[in-house]
Amino acid sequence: MLPMTRDFLTLCPGPIDVASGADLVTQAALFRLIVENTVEVIVRYDSNYRRVYISPSSREMLGYDPAEMLGKPAYELNHPDDLERANRTLRGIGPGNPCSKLIFRLRRKDGVYIWLETLYHRVAWVSGVNA
What InterPro entries does this protein's entry cite (predicted)? Predict the structure, then answer.
């Protein structure tokens, strides 16, 4: 059996009071500190399911530097037997289904497939601020 890991978790920070610029800067700095130091891999995709952000923990878990994964399709590293289910899960997320869990295999840079438990969470993004 392949090793089971848990990653690709989307973090949802608490509400941010955008009326206070100082609070927003503090919240953003805290969020960046958490995201860049977590052992979980955090990924943000664009509307075409391409990676636009991947946390530094991808180096340890997957063997890839985040820059190597940016702009690439969400499914490029999926095990072929899990591809259809992963595609269906990711594309099924929307206003009526904002969060979904998927357990699947992903290929590390060294070619080994590992099992992942992924939580996909739809986040509206407006002018760089969660809406």
Answer: PAS, PAS-like_dom_sf, PAS_fold_3
